[in-house]
Each structure stands twice: as structure tokens, then as C-alpha cells.
Design a protein that fits this description.
By secondary structure, this protein is α+β, with helices and mostly antiparallel strands. The protein folds into nine domains: about 55 residues, no CATH class; about 60 residues, SH3 type barrels, CATH 2.30.30.40; about 60 residues, Roll (SH3 type barrels), CATH 2.30.30.40; about 60 residues, SH3 Domains (SH3 type barrels, Roll); about 60 residues, SH3 Domains (SH3 type barrels), CATH 2.30.30; about 60 residues, SH3 type barrels (Roll); about 50 residues, SH3 type barrels; about 70 residues, SH3 type barrels (Roll), CATH 2.30.30; and more. Helices cover about 20% and strands about 40% of the residues. Bound molecules: zinc ion. Zinc ion binds next to loops.
């Protein structure tokens, strides 16, 4: 939803600011989507003195509009896990999941849902959990006498052009300081201090002060509008406060003379049309079956079930759970599957002024207005219109300018994220993956021997497994839970000569004839040790023998270690290490640790190890600071890095989820894709040697930092902070060192 609203509010802002207010509100023309209105509109404008400016500005406005309404746009997943569904409904089948920071292409928006293409099929995700990807285009005016256009978003980069004072430009903010512009067909960057924003798609905060009542037993007052910031005080239940909404979730308050922020889910707005109560609600079950649980969490025991369509009464205990009485006992149901009958959905106005109309269409009469951040109870009557009560009358508002007041923290669909998986291993040489839990169902893929599978459930001796972002079924007859011993044949190892000249002989003996010599430092294709004195090697593609005492396979003067990894390949390589998250973004949190701390510590360890092998290392961040994903990708793209490695730590609702995995982006450039896959594969191979945590494999993904990276790049998930076993690894100093060594080793193999 965010995305669409931001786009639409652009028009709202744009026309409020520029267009004579007597004109028909332009946003409505867009709502109707009739271009003829636009040309009529242009004709009218030509009479006015501002016609030139407005016509000029219409061009970006129109292209932005068509992008939203007709062409695809991109969204970035802002929840830890986002369900992909068959239909635009939480009752519909989950086809797969998208991960945090993954970038997806949105075909169009359908109400609160974004239509996407998933595994070549049309699918839907809840659009509240999508952020825009650089799609926000602003219009600004140059306020400096001359403003440099630079080749990258820093003041040290080269100047590629200049804008003049008063010029109107369009730009995309890349961070709070820099905006991306197009200049003579090239990408450039300008310092935003000297650009006055005229119009924007960005949602702005409200200056409106609300009165609210605290509904939580204690409500933390935080130093910034996120749950990871420090707590500076508390409000008590029932206290009346005044606050300014900064977005749909947080409100700004003044506490002991300081600015503070409170989570609005626990603040009941006193004024306005909202009339939520802590009383009993009536609801209708929307799931095919809804579990009644002994306590308000998905891990508690199931004491009964409601059926689809049943009408129940419940008391909300929080935004997610409702208390019910079942067979004389207290029970709890997940409210996602309960449609409240009495009241509508709590929504907040995102437009500065929103018309309330007598009918659900833009040609009906206006009976009132909502102002920005007003919270109303809305009953959707179509995908674009909702019914509200205004001053005792029924009115209709466009849902495009309303955002659902999220009752929860950042986690969507919590119940559904919970999947307990067990890792199994394939015992057959090629195991069919089938569409359904039947051996007669169609084959959708194959698994090689010893490959690991995440088993979601078992039915009819068929295991439901995660496959290609969706699910598939394999016969349990060919699955074992015992991790296969690594019987894979070792690749030919490279050893180095540490004698001034080393004879190569046709027999493992000094009596063998010399078939050639190897120079000091030469790389040897080592095959195996014949005995303690002789080594079998490949020489001119033939088997040959050298005295093994003159082969160097340790670190030290040479760059080859005991396992034959050639660290010399790292020399002079430029490696960018990206510590995931930072600053206000803690990443995942669990078992007393923050992801951002682990990732920063890890990049520092990897850096010093890489540097001792002669690599040049660039860090995206070397301290606890927040960086936009676009800044990270830009840093890489504007650098001469040979590889980009982003380090992360995973998390899941299911405490049993664990394992190590690496990702790369399936770029259309084969060179980039193959190189990224090589880095991802080599790093995972090495990491698995130093941990007992299972492999989740090398996967392709659309994470922003790898998708928008023009360098070979990989993203590592070191383990699950939410799993006690993985967490004990992640906490351990010795393990972090081993993992850092493994990453270095993987990179050495990648470059070798
Ligand atoms: Zn992360």
C-alpha cells in the first residue's frame, strides 16, 4: 500500500502546489485514468501565466503516473518474510516467501495487494510490506548560483556538469544528502542542500496534534521512531497524551522537555471518528479452519477449531489475537482470519485532504473532508473505495489515500512464517521432485544424490520440501536424515615449488628419468602423495612425479596453505565487504545479539585477513551507522572492486530454523552471474567446513545490494540468530575467526 499511496500523494501535492485550486482536482483525473482529461486540462492551463512551468512539469508527472498504473514498478520487501499468495487474499494459498530486502517487480496494485509474477505465475503479496526502489522522483529547484553534477554521490568524485540557479530538475534521492539526476544522458549526482523540493512522492509528516489515551499497561517512549532506539521514559495505561503522527506507526511526543516517540498501536486517538473499544467484537471466520489456541501464540496447544463463515464474538487482546470462549474455556484465535463484522478497518489518511463523497465514485457529491493522518474506520466496498461514517452520515473515500493502521510491529503474518523444517539428504542418484504428494503427479525437477532438502511436512511417505521458492514433493524412501559423509572427489590441488628448480620424473624414484623441471614458485598440479617422499602430479597433462619435500603447501613465505588453497590469487584484488544493517537498523535480533554488531565484527576480521594476503579491502561501513541499500550498491558500482561480499545473519520465527547459505543475483549478464555464483559457492563450501550448522545451499535472490550491483557479488547468511545452536556459533570468538578464515579461503578459491 505504501508504494501506491506515495505515488498518488505526489499528484496530490503536485497539484495543490502548482495548479490553480479552482481546477478540478487533478488526482481524480488520474483516478479515472482518462488521458483525454489531461489534454483538456493542458488546454485550460495555457491561458494562465504559469502554463509553461506546469506543462514542463507535467512530463515527469505523466511518466510517473503511467509507471504506477500501467507499467511495472519495483518494490523492496521490508518484512522479514513475506508470503506470496495465489490470490489477493490472506486465505489464498501461499506459493512461496520473499525475504527481507528482496526486490520484486510489481505488475500492478490490486487494493492492498501487489500483483507480481512469481515462478512465471501471477501471484500477490501484501503491499504494506513493500518499499519503493528508487522509484520516488522529486522535482526540485536549484538554489545555489551553480550546482555541480558529480559522477558519484560524494564531493570527491569528478564534476560532469552544472545546473544554474533557478533551474527546475527532476531527481531521485539516493540518501538524505544526494540526489541522482540524468545529465546529458548520463547518471549524475547533486548535493540536495542546494535543491529546493517543489514536489515529491514522499509522504510528509503531519503538523496535526492529536490527543490519545494509552492502552498498553506501560508504553515506552523512545528516542527515535523505531523499536530499537533507546527508551527515554514510559507512559502508563489510561494516561492522556498529545502527539503528532510521524507515520502510521509512530507518534512524536514531548517528554520531560525532550522529543520522544511512541508506538501508536497502544495509543487510542480520543478525538475524531474513531471509536474502537476494548469491548467484545463480532467477527466472521475467513480461514477454512481456524485454530483456537490455549494462549495467544502459535506455539500453544490447539483446543478447538472454528469453521469458515462461522460468526464468533471475541475480545481483542492485542492487534493479532482475540480471546474467545470455547466449550466454556478461554481460547485465542489469530485475528488475521477473523473479519470484524461490526467495525471496519482502522485506516489513516495519507493525503493532505481527502474528499468524502456521497457515493463510491468521483462524480458524486462531496459531503466532507478528511485531513492528513486522520484515523477512520473503513469498510471497503470495492478495491478502491471504502465506506466510512462522517458526522453521523455514511460517506465514501478513495482507498488510495488511506493506509491501514498496522497493529503489529514489523512482522507480517506471524502465524504463517512459522514453518518447522527438518533437513534431509537424498540417497538416490536422481530423485524426482513432484508437484503433488503422489508418485504419479508430474515431475517438476530433480535432486542429485546427497543434496539437502528442507522438509516442511510428510504425507503419504512423500516429503513436502522447499523448492525454487515454492514447494515440491519427494519420496521419503530416498531421503535420510543422516548427513552424508563427504565422499566427493577432491579437486586436483595446487602446490607450489619451493626449490630453485625441481626435477619432474616419470617414476617416483631418483632412478626415474627427468621429463622436465619446474621453476621456483611454479604452481604444481598435485594429484596425490605416493609415499612420504614422492608426490604424483600432472605435468603436461601426464602423470609425473616430484620429490614432495620441495613442494610448498603451507602459508608463510608462499601463499598456498595445507589444503592447497592459493592465497596468492588474492594479491591486489579489490574486495568490498558490506556489513549488513547498522545504526538505527539493527537487523535481526536474538539470543542477546544484534545482527548489525555481528556483521560489523565479521567484516573487520575478514578485512585484516584479506589484507595480510595482499588484497585491498573497502568496507561499506566501519562503524555503527545506517546506510541505505542504494548507498551500499552505489559504493560498489562506483568502486573498482573485483567482488562485493555482503555479510548477514538470518532469523526465523521457528526456533529450529538454522543453517548457512549464500546468495547471488541471477543477472542476465552471464559473466556477472557466473562470477557471483563462483564467489557464493566457494565461500559456502569453506564455511561448511568450519561449522556443524547445515547447508541451506547457494541460491539466487533479488536482494537489493546484489541485484543493483554491477560487480560480482554475493550475500552470506552466516546462520540463524534465532536458533540457539547457530547463535552459540555466532557468539563464539573462535568461530567468528574460523568463519572469517573460511570467507577469505572461499574468496582465494574464487579468484584462483
Ligand atoms: Zn540482514
Amino acid at each position: 500500500m505504501d508504494f501506491l499511496i506515495k505515488q498518488y500523494s505526489f499528484y496530490n501535492y503536485f497539484f495543490k502546489g502548482i495548479v490553480n485550486k479552482k481546477q478540478k482536482p487533478y488526482k481524480e483525473l488520474f483516478e479515472k485514468g482518462k488521458r483525454c482529461h489531461i489534454s483538456m486540462f493542458n488546454a485550460k492551463l495555457k491561458k494562465s501565466s504559469t502554463a509553461l512551468l506546469v506543462t514542463a512539469l507535467l512530463v515527469p508527472g505523466l511518466s510517473l503516473h503511467s509507471k504506477v498504473a500501467h507499467a511495472s514498478s519495483e518494490g523492496i520487501v521490508n518484512a522479514s518474510s513475506l508470503n506470496v499468495r495465489e490470490q489477493a487474499s490472506t486465505n489464498s494459498k501461499v506459493l512461496g516467501k520473499l525475504k527481507n530486502n528482496e526486490v520484486i517487480t510489481v505488475n500492478k496494485f490490486v487494493g492492498k495487494w501487489a500483483e507480481i509474477t512469481y515462478n512465471s505465475k501471477t501471484a500477490y503479496v501484501y503491499s504494506q510490506y513493500l518499499d519503493t526502489v528508487n522509484s520516488q522522483t522529486n522535482i526540485g529547484k536549484i538554489t545555489a548560483s551553480k550546482l555541480n553534477i558529480r559522477s558519484s554521490a560524494d564531493t570527491y568524485s569528478s564534476v560532469i556538469g552544472q545546473f544554474k540557479n533557478g533551474e527546475t530538475i527532476t531527481y531521485k534521492p539516493v540518501n538524505s544528502k544526494w540526489g541522482e539526476v540524468t545529465y546529458n544522458g548520463k547518471k549524475g549526482y547533486v548535493y540536495l542542500t542546494y535543491v529546493q523540493k517543489i514536489a515529491s512522492s514522499e509522504a510528509t509528516g503531519s503538523s496535526q496534534t492529536n490527543t490519545g489515551k494509552i492502552t498498553a499497561s506501560k508504553l515506552n517512549i523512545r528516542s527515535s521512531a523505531d523499536t530499537y532506539s533507546s527508551v527515554i521514559g514510559q507512559f502508563k495505561n489510561g494516561e492522556t497524551i498529545t502527539y503528532k503522527p510521524v507515520n502510521s506507526k509512530w507518534g512524536e511526543v514531548t517528554y520531560n522537555g525532550k522529543k520522544g516517540y511512541v508506538y501508536l498501536s497502544y495509543v487510542k486517538k480520543v478525538e475524531g471518528t474513531e471509536a474502537t473499544s476494548s469491548q467484545t467484537n463480532t467477527g466472521k471466520i475467513t480461514a477454512s479452519k481456524l485454530n483456537i489456541r490455549s494462549s495467544a501464540d502459535t506455539y500453544s496447544s490447539v483446543i478447538g477449531q472454528f469453521k469458515n463463515g462461522e460468526t464468533i464474538t471475541y475480545k481483542p487482546v492485542n492487534s493479532k489475537w482475540g480471546e474467545v470462549t470455547y466449550n466454556g474455556k478461554k481460547g485465542y484465535v489469530y485475528l488475521t482470519y477473523v473479519q470484524k463484522v461490526s467495525n471496519g478497518i482502522k485506516m489513516q489518511t495519507t493525503a493532505s485532504a481527502l474528499n468524502v463523497r456521497s457515493q463510491p465514485n468521483t462524480s458524486s457529491s462531496i459531503i466532507g473532508k478528511l485531513t492528513k493522518s486522520d484515523i477512520v474506520s473503513v469498510e471497503p466496498v470495492s478495491s478502491t473505495w471504502g465506506k466510512i461514517a462522517l458526522n453521523g452520515k455514511t460517506g465514501y473515500v478513495s482507498l488510495n489515500y488511506l493506509k491501514e493502521v498496522s497493529g503489529s510491529s514489523a512482522q507480517p503474518d506471524n502465524q504463517e512464517q512459522q514453518t518447522t523444517t527438518k533437513t534431509g539428504y537424498v540417497t538416490a542418484s536422481a530423485l524426482n521432485i513432484r508437484q503433488k504428494a503422489s508418485t504419479s503427479s508430474s515431475i517438476i525437477g530433480k535432486l542429485a544424490k546427497n543434496s539437502s532438502v528442507s522438509i516442511l511436512s510428510i504425507e503419504n511417505n512423500m516429503a513436502k520440501i522447499s523448492y525454487n521458492g515454492g514447494v515440491g514433493y519427494v519420496s521419503m524412501s530416498y531421503i535420510t536424515y543422516t548427513k552424508p559423509s563427504t565422499t566427493t572427489t577432491k579437486p586436483v590441488e595446487n602446490y607450489y615449488v619451493n626449490a630453485s628448480a625441481l626435477n619432474v620424473r616419470n617414476k617416483p624414484s631418483l632412478s626415474g628419468s627427468v621429463v622436465g623441471t619446474l621453476a621456483n614458485g611454479a604452481k604444481v598440479d598435485y594429484v596425490s602423495a605416493v609415499n612420504s617422499e614422492w608426490a604424483k602430479i600432472k605435468y603436461n597433462n601426464k602423470d609425473a612425479y616430484v620429490s614432495s619435500q620441495y613442494l610448498q603447501k603451507s602459508t608463510g613465505s608462499s601463499y598456498v596453505d595445507s589444503t592447497g588453497v592459493n592465497y596468492a590469487s588474492l594479491k591486489n584484488k579489490v574486495i568490498m565487504l558490506d556489513a549488513g544493517h547498522g545504526g538505527k537498523d539493527s537487523g535481526t535480533v536474538g539470543n542477546g545479539m544484534y545482527e548489525k554488531d555481528i556483521t560489523l565484527d565479521m567484516v573487520k576480521r575478514v578485512k585484516s585477513k584479506l589484507e595480510s594476503s595482499g588484497a585491498k579491502v573497502i568496507l561499506t561501513r566501519s562503524d555503527d551507522r545506517y546506510l541505505y541499500l542504494s548507498e551500499r550498491a552505489n559504493l560498489s558500482n562506483n568502486s573498482n572492486a573485483n567482488v562485493f561480499v555482503s555479510i548477514h545473519v538470518n532469523s526465523a520465527t521457528a526456533p529450529s530454523a538454522r543453517g548457512v547459505e549464500t546468495f547471488y543475483f541471477g543477472s542476465t549478464s552471464a559473466t556477472l552471474r557466473n562470477s557471483s555464483a563462483s564467489a557464493a559457492t566457494n565461500i559456502l563450501d569453506e564455511l561448511l567446513k568450519v561449522t556443524n550448522s547445515p547447508s541451506r545451499g547457494v541460491k539466487t535472490a533479488n536482494f537489493y545490494v546484489i541485484k543493483y550491483n554491477h560487480k560480482p557479488s554475493t550475500l552470506i547468511e552466516l546462520g540463524f540468530i534465532s536458533n540457539t545452536s547457530d547463535a552459540s556459533y555466532l557468539r563464539d570468538n573462535a568461530y567468528r575467526n574460523k568463519a572469517a578464515d573460511a570467507i577469505v579461503k572461499g574468496l582465494a578459491k574464487h579468484f584462483d
